[in-house]
Amino acid sequence: MTAAPASDADGAAREWLARSRDELAQVTLGPEATSIGRVERVADAIAQVSGLPEVRLNELLHFEGGQTGFALTLDRDSISAVILDAASTVEAGTKVSRTGAVVQVPVGPGLLGRIVDPLGRPRDGGEAVVAEAYHPIERPAPAIIERDLVTEQVDTGLLVVDALFTLGRGQRELIIGDRATGKTAIAVDTIISQKDSDIVCVYVAVGQRATAVERVIEAVRQHGAPEKCIFVVASAADAPGLQWIAPFAGTTIAEYFRDRGQHALIVIDDLTKHAATHRELALLTREPAGREAYPGDVFYLHARLLERAAKLSKELGSGSLTALPIAETDAGNLSAYIPTNLISITDGQIVLGSQLFAANQRPAVDVGLSVSRVGGKAQHPALRQVSGRIRLDYSQFLELEMFSRFGGIADTRVKAQMTRGERIRALLSQPRFATLRPVDEIALLAALSAGVLDDMPVEAMPELRTRLPGHLDAAVPDAAKSLEADAKLDDTLRDTLVASVRALAAGLKGKGT
């Protein structure tokens, strides 16, 4: 007599049992130690935590309610942890666990075109960032022997910067001025100007209003190449801890491209608010205050941040990271604590004046106070040829204009200097989102030095600048390619460019523009 076949339920049970045995066989059994601390008190997004004696500085911590934080100061019996998320549910008695890792940020091409917070979490409503790796936000700056000379120009598209205060790849140029003088506008125009270049741009917003950040992002979307940009946002409404780590996280994201032989540009907007956040956290954790209530390490804080911008040697791929930190002054006081710190750290500064801004000179760059300590070493050879005397001529014009207010000037030579200076000022005044190509800047300055613009009405200069790119593309289509390879400006090409500008200027004068 044969036995009845097993039921389907018995077969499924045997399969489950066999699968469970296989899974258990692969489990490694052994002791596991976990460090659990306890929040003693919490206030102003700072938690005093006990029970974690082995935690290290800047180590990432997890709170019981799902929040994250990091260890800012280490005391004998407790640590001060900065909470990076909403701290409303963190209270005394909340459990805190170590992660064993410092604060890290995702890096890789998956961040291009995205808006993220300093921890790499999306803020644009998109999916989670696809990271190639996670790198610490605090990384050592390249050593001197790992660096190379800064010899390549970053085209900002702004004539006043490219001609007078050239920005080099790997340089750190501070943009500084009073509130509402156009500091962010210069940085955004520089980002927009990279839409046809090989530079990846990272914009870091620190303590800015959400509406201001939205305007920056929208400007890049309309006029630039947002797919080549990364926006790291820690607005004024975010936790102070997020604002504190934002510049370091943005620099780590930009370093990914530099370390792979590419070129990156980072804008930090702005370090004055970052210094204020650092002071806030230091006072809350009872760090001793130094000059003007700032902690004594605020200089080292920004020095170790900006030192990470560099041009790497050929052995390391020749990549570069260019930094444009922004700082704010009060009543033009460049000798205040934070401005002097940043000026001494960076390789030059672009100073914007409130009086120039009020006089409708945009960008409101003060050519007397601004400087680039790299300058002509990185300037395009052709641009260097045609911009040699422009700064001296413009400075002399500003002095003469001041003296001319006391009476008329009869000297013919001085009148010619005044005429040339007025045209220089009109050329250096440039509206937003109207960046120029190198060939446009070279043509304008060559025509200026040749005297082509001396008899042209100042009122016609804006239209000349607007129409010039299209006119050059039609009249001298090969000029841009001839100047792309950092070639010097030969006499033939110079004469051709001057003749093209002369023809355009004559046409505008003929129309009575």
From TrEMBL:
Lineage: Bacteria, Pseudomonadati, Pseudomonadota, Alphaproteobacteria, Hyphomicrobiales
Binding residues for ATP: 177-184
Family: Belongs to the ATPase alpha/beta chains family.
GN (gene name): atpA
PROSITE patterns membership: ATPASE_ALPHA_BETA
SUPFAM superfamilies membership: C-terminal domain of alpha and beta subunits of F1 ATP synthase, N-terminal domain of alpha and beta subunits of F1 ATP synthase, P-loop containing nucleoside triphosphate hydrolases
Database matches in Pfam families: ATP-synt_ab, ATP-synt_ab_C, ATP-synt_ab_N
Annotated localization: Cell membrane; Membrane
Domain annotation ATPase F1/V1/A1 complex alpha/beta subunit nucleotide-binding: ranges: 157-372
GO CC terms: plasma membrane; proton-transporting ATP synthase complex
Name of the protein described by the UniProt record: ATP synthase subunit alpha
Source organism (scientific name): Ancylobacter mangrovi
